[in-house]
Amino acid sequence: MSVTIKTAREIELMREAGRLLEIVHNQLGEFIKPGISTLDIDRLGEKLIRNLGCTPNFLHYNGYPASICVSVNDEVVHGIPNKRRILQEGDIVSLDAGLIYKGYHSDAARTYAVGSISKEAQQLIDVTRQSFFEGIKFAKAGNHLNDISTAIAAYAEKFGYGVVRDLVGHGIGTHLHEDPQIPNFPQKRRGIRLVPGMTLAIEPMINMGRADVEWLDDEWTVVTQDGTLSAHYENTVLITEGEPEILTLNP
Predict the structure, then answer these.
(1) pTM for the structure as a whole
(2) Element (H, E) at 98
(3) β pairing state of 169-171 and 178-182
(4) pLDDT tens, 87-126?
(5) For residue 129, what is the enclosing H or E element?
(6) CA dist., res. 142 & res. 2, Å (int)
(7) What is 8-246's CATH topology?
């Protein structure tokens, strides 16, 4: 495993890639409403990314056909945008997006309510987001990767939720996916020691029911096996000498 440690110059570029991606997410979040198609979201997302002078990093990545992964309700991640898939009042929709700025990647995901949603769905979104923040309390130099993983699962599982085990977070930099893999659940080993200059995409994927998932025939869309709702929350995070810096979220 080779985990890249970013130089001061690289960190500046990663910071800008993260700042620009947050702008995209904020505008997409305002766009979400009943009656739009998942393809409408993808088209707007690609346009926003290109208008900022960046490249969508998901488009054609390993053959993925879109710029924004749009996953509705029981879709965990990697939903393929489609003009026939119309968002309905009460749905929840996860948007996973990333961009390349001057050769450096950023990656972030948010789950949004479509119109007014059930209390149960809102709680799932809130707990998934908070599980990320519980995890990054441990994203400090000297701690181990497994400290993050353990904290995410411990928080989400208190609510009886299933923490997805088939998909994990990852390092990020000049490539979208770099070492290390970052599970959202405890490992038998402590994992690598965190050092300043590491950039990590930490991304809890949490199901209302069981943790089990399966892939649809398109070979991209991951859904909950039991058909329950799933939420996703992700940021690109920089390990520093002190508190972690979230590159895709303005403090």
Answers:
(1) 0.97
(2) strand 92-101
(3) antiparallel
(4) 999 999 999 999 999 999 999 999 999 999 999 999 999 9
(5) helix 119-136
(6) 18
(7) Creatine Amidinohydrolase (3.90.230)
Residue for token pair 């900022």: 52
Question: Contact at 8 Å (CB) between 192 and 170?
Answer: no
How many angstroms separate the CA atoms of 20 and 187, rounded? 33
Strand partners, 162: 207
- Domain locations in the chain as residue ranges: 8-246
AA identity, residue 245: E
Q: Which of 33, 69, 83, 26 is nearest to 176 (CA)?
A: 69
Report the alpha-carbon distance of residue 136 to residue 130 in Å, rounded: 10
Sheet holding 222-224, edge to edge: 75-77, 222-224, 213-215
CB neighbour class for 160 (10 Å; exposed up to 12, middle 13-18, buried from 19): exposed
